Amino acid sequence: MRLLTIIIFDGLNYAATLFLISVGLTLVYGVLRILNISHGGIYALGAYMATWLALWFLGVGLPAYLSYFMLLAGAVIIGLVTGPIIERLFLRRIYGSDQHIQLLLTFSILLILDDSLKLIWGMQPMFVSEPYTLLGQFSVAGIAYSWYHFLLIGVSVVFGGGLVWLTRGTRFGKLVVSVINDREVSLAIGINVNRIYTLAFTLGALAAAIGGAFIAPTISVAPGFALEVVVLSFAVIAIGGMGSLEGAALGAVIVGLSRALAIHLVPELELVVIYLIMVLVLALRPAGILGEEELRRI
Amino acid sequence: MNLLALPRAALIASAVLGVAPFVVPSWVLFILTLALAKFLAVLGVALFLRAGMVTFGHALFYAVGAYTVGFSAKWFGFREALVLVPLGALTGLIAAALVGLIMARYRGVFFAMLNLAFSMILYAALLKLYWVTGGTDGLGAGTPTFLGALLPRDIFRIAYYYFALVIAGVIIYGVYRFLVSPLGYFLKALGDNEIRIEYSGESVRRVVYTTYVLSGALGGVAGVLVAFTVGHIVPEYSFWIQSGDFVFIALLGGFESVPGPLIGAIAFEFIRTYASKYWPEGWQILLGGIMLLIILYRPGGLWAIYESVAARFSGRARGEAGA
After folding, report:
1. Model's pTM, two decimal places?
2. Is A138 helix (H, G, I), strand (E, B) or coil?
3. Chain A contacts of B296, Cβ < 8 Å?
């Protein structure tokens, strides 16, 4: 019983992290139909920028509670800068191209972003602990947890809920749905499709950066974790169904819980379990649990 | 058509590469050997690119080939190049035959990302099972023997280069035959329209699976050759950056043709040598930047540039207006 509690707790913690890293990827895929491999680079940039800003902020002796806003500010800056640049300069030119061209292009951008990080912030790992330790700890079943993990779960619930509201309950969301379903008809009825694409991609970039920023205090930010994030978040959204927000949440919970199970019961399988689930789900339901089957073109 | 231009280009290329050991300094020879070896792995990646599929995980088979050498040297002290090259092809082939069972079902992003996932699993395993694989320290390959004979260092370098050249030549011929076989044409058609392939009575899965197994064997051979060239085998052989390099080389040289990847591999090794000397921090920026330029402006890579130049010259020689 005690073990079960711990597993559920760890699993949910991890699920929050996974949801934050993958929601942007599924959003961009849902609207643009492009698997944005540079997502990991934006995530890492967000993490670095937020950590750097928070460290600078704490360094000049300003109140530590405000460091949370610095994390957010760092993420917003990165999201609003990288999103429009990448979409306008590069993605716009390959919307009609084959899938492999789109993958290669976003992969090139990932390589560039990954190295830019090292040029800007150097090879040394960076770590800001204040946002993490500030909230204190509590214990469940004899194991100490930081309240920060609750904050992460909160952030992901609020963020996910916000996105669902944005796509279901607002005018912008209705325009997006229209563009997803039929680009040409949307153009014909006067929707600025290019603007919707830019906004959607920027939103995805913002999500990636916010994920990076709030996860940063729980890990140490070091070069080279950009691609890991792409692989992991792809696994999550492939399990849940690519392009679906609920799918990302479901995928995150499934992967989070099974990883926690693996860690506590068969630690050797920690890494493999995610991919095992992915292969299993894709074998049974190729479009993911909540995904819609895409018709093959003739 | 690219394939028809092959014989003349092949003659020129083999003449140039054939005299290279007596003309170039030894560091260039080392780079050429490395390029020849990696070219084979790139060929496997290029086959899929022709079909409109991209794989970010073919370093998996490359690592399988390299560790075949590593384990053979570590456990049995066995370093016979003439045996280990076919053995590497076999282990690569077996690995691809297993992974391919899953992979042949997927296309597009799933194919790319699942390949990536599998290669990263192997990478993690190679790191964690350090009592077998040596972890980050890796394994030593040592100097290979030819028919049991250990050649003196200077002669070995040249002999090994020719060995790699002959293997590359044999494989180029094999892949060329594959591409002009019905299966090869179906592979090309895969990127255009899958369902029509099935209308014509061929199983798409069989086409993909056969290509996958072939590309695995190519990766295995490349791994063996590189292991002996570099002499040191590390988990990075299976890392995503390695797979990314293969994709990059295929794009740089031009994946539509057989010689394209070879040109790409040679160019890549030279770019890398100079980049690591003058701008090591910006290596990936350079790669990404070149890749962006190729994708957006010159999708055919270096080979297409060569072809357009050659076409202009031959057109002028025959008194035709440049088409």
Report:
1. 0.89
2. strand
3. 90, 93-94, 105
